[in-house]
Amino acid sequence: xxxxxxxxxxxxxxxxxxxxxxxxxxxxxxxxxxxxxxxxxxxxxxxxxxxxxxxxxxxxxxxxxxxxxxxxxxxxxxxxxxxxxxxxxxxxxxxxxxxxxxxxxxxxxxxxxxxxxxxx
Length: 120
Prior knowledge:
The protein is built from two helices and five strands; from the N terminus they run αβββαββ. The protein has helices at 6-23, 71-87, and strands at residues 27-35, 38-46, 49-58, 94-105, 108-114. It is an alpha+beta fold. The chain has a five-stranded mixed sheet with strand order 1-2-3-4-5. Helix content is 29%, strand content 39%.
């Protein structure tokens, strides 16, 4: 696999994460939802829960990808999620904030799905 720039690597990681979620029974509602508060990579639904998923993609497992989700990023994701729920009138549904780490090396990838990663 040739070297990818950060944007292409991120896009590939999000595609892999989306396929992973679909294969595990999640219905994808929206990808790359943006508003003035921020962006959420994937919004999915499973078992009466809405999952707001941050995807982090790396080519080397030097530092865990989830460590790059700082406190400020968590705040933006939380506000963006609240806005999404409000405009879609979904305030009464269960919510989870998750992260998917995608490690890509050569022609293989490793997926680490972490639930309830983001705190309010």
